[in-house]
């Protein structure tokens, strides 16, 4: 791999909330990588909001259909609340909706693969929520 290795660095999730401790940890990781000779650039990977929406359309149908009944029967109150709120946020879809989301996932994956040709390493928070 050609040097320096380019790193896409993003301390906060665009369009949403990132806990300050997460943002600080990402900033620290960026400083460490830069000190080690990586080319750290503040740049957002492509289509983050669309990826989140697509994942929810796929996941809500798959996970809620299979996991939610088990959580209702055996999960604790927090897990049951999580499943209920997810179902309210993104209700499961039909076969056509899932197939459309899977096709969209393939397009998004293609865009990420192209992005990762330039930035093979991405450092950003893994969790957050939209404000």
Strand content: 5-15%
Order of helices and strands: EEHEHHHEE
> Which regions are unreliable across 5 or more consecutive residues at pLDDT < 50?
none
Helix content bin = 55-70%
Work out the number of β strands: 5
The geometry reads as globular
Terminal-residue CA separation:
38 Å
Number of helices: 4
Mean pLDDT: 91
* Sheet with the most strands, sense and barrel status: 3 strands, parallel
- Strand order, sheet with most strands: 3-1-4
Helix-strand makeup class: mainly alpha
What Rg, in angstroms, do the CA atoms define? Answer: 18 Å
Keywords:
single chain, 131 residues, 11% strand
Question: Topology of this protein?
Answer:
Layout: E1 6-9, E2 16-17, H1 20-35, E3 39-42, H2 48-74, H3 77-89, H4 95-118, E4 121-123, E5 129-130
Structural write-up:
Helices cover 61% and strands 11% of the residues. With 131 residues, the protein is mainly alpha-helical. It has a 3-stranded parallel sheet with strand order 3-1-4, with helices on one face. The longest helix has 27 residues, at 48-74. The N and C termini lie far apart (38 Å). The mean pLDDT is 91.
Compact overview of the structure:
The chain is mainly alpha-helical and 131 residues long. It is built from four helices and five strands.
């Amino acid at each position: 791999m050609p040097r320096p290795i380019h790193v896409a660095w993003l301390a906060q999730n665009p369009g949403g909330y990132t806990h300050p401790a997460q943002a600080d940890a990402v900033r620290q990781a960026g400083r460490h990588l830069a000190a080690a000779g990586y080319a750290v650039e503040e740049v957002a990977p492509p289509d983050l909001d669309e990826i989140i929406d697509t994942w929810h359309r796929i996941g809500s149908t798959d996970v809620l259909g299979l996991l939610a009944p088990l959580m209702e029967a055996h999960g604790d109150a927090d897990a049951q609340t999580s499943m209920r709120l997810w179902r309210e946020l993104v209700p499961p879809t039909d076969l056509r909706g899932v197939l459309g989301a899977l096709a969209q996932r393939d397009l998004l994956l293609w865009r990420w693969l192209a992005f990762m040709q330039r930035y093979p390493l991405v450092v950003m928070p893994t969790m957050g929520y939209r404000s």
